[in-house]
Amino acid sequence: MARAKRRTKAKPKKKKAAKTRKGAKVWTAAHVATLRKMYKTSTNKSIARALRRTVGSVAAKARSLKLRKPKVRKAAKKATKRRVAKKRPAKRRTAKRKTARRKPAKRKAKARKRPKARSRKKR
Prior knowledge:
4 helices, 33% helix, mainly alpha, 123 residues, single chain
């Protein structure tokens, strides 16, 4: 005889706590609130300075919170391009050509006259 399988209710899965790296700073509620407030208007670098964290950690936390920076409008992009185009390019310094320099002629060492050795007179 075949046994009938018992049907059991599926147990709800518990959410695992996110693993944090050893020695890593924990994100407090105040830090998360600051991140949410500043993220759309300021750069990741300035947020990182304010929270005393790395730029990478700020970007990673924003990603996990599904925060997005607003897309820059095309008009704003064009304006920045115009500003950049108006700036004068830096003058290029051309390398000076090295002319073939003549090596100074070696002077012949003149034979020096040595002073005569004084002979000691015996008394």
